[in-house]
Amino acid sequence: MNKDQYQKWTEFREKVSNSISHQEFEFLCRLHSDLFDHKYYKPCTCRPKEINKWIKDINEKYSEIDPDAL
Prior knowledge:
Layout: H1 3-14, H2 22-35, H3 48-63
Helix pairs in contact: 2-3
């Protein structure tokens, strides 16, 4: 995760809501594909379990990062 991605994910995490915008969804999908080395795709929004799993996956990577090292 680079510095820009880290900052954007920090902003994403600070948002208090049960929904995400189209732009946030795009960012989430792009970031997950970058971090977990898979082709970019957008899971169907009818499958929130997968989307929530992706958020959890990214949060785990995020928590392992020292922001001062970026």
